[in-house]
Amino acid sequence: MKTLIRLCFALVLLLLIQSNGVARQSDLSKPIDVRADSSEFDEKAGLQTLSGNVQIIQGSMKINAEFISISLENNALSVIEGRGKPIRFEQENEAGELMRGEAKTVIYDARNGTLILKGSAKLSQPQQDLTSEKITFNAETQKVSAEGGGSSGRVSIQIQPPKSSQ
To answer: In terms of C-beta density within 10 A (0-12 exposed, 13-18 middle, 19 or more buried), how is residue 94 classed?
Structure first.
């Protein structure tokens, strides 16, 4: 179970590592606290499910979801999927600045190294906010792409100006 929850942390870390402020490295050595209304592991199917008010905390990293499933193929991580109203996550970067994100669905496909936030996806980082119907992060190429959707059908990016040195 602990190994599977570490994989959930990897999901969030992959998303945040692409920002200018890398996620707090000291969080990796902190204990992982998992709470859910129910948990089930189907060894034959290779499926771990956590459901009902799922909370995962490790250091400054926090994930809140209604449902998280972790699929294994040949005893190796295959896919992590989380759903919520929305699923939310946050973590401090090394500078102590809070990074936040949310989406209705988060899917990490370990086979091809992609992280997808779908359904009213938002990513707030220091100095930049990104809103889209779908945000995809490719861990191998370190590229983020966003697709519009919803009522406006457009991607929205807000970049803050540099802080004045006066």
So the answer is: exposed
One-character DSSP codes across 3-40 = HHHHHHHHHHHHHHTTSSS-B-GGGGGSPPEEE-SEEE
pLDDT, tens digit (0-9, with 9 covering 90-100), for 63-118: 899 999 988 888 777 888 899 989 988 888 778 888 888 999 988 887 887 878 89
**CATH architecture assigned to 2-159:** Sandwich (2.60)
Q: Given CA atoms 132, 5, 74, 141 in this order, what sign does their dihedral have?
A: positive
Is there a contact between 5 and 32 (Cβ–Cβ < 8 Å)?
yes
For residues 67 and 121, give the distance between their C-alpha atoms in angstroms, rounded to a whole number: 17
Q: Of 164, 134, 6, 158, which is closest to residue 70 (Cα–Cα)?
A: 6
Q: Which residue has the tokens 């809103």?
A: 131
Q: Which of 109, 113, 93 is nearest to 101 (CA)?
A: 93
Q: Please state the pTM of the whole predicted model.
A: 0.72
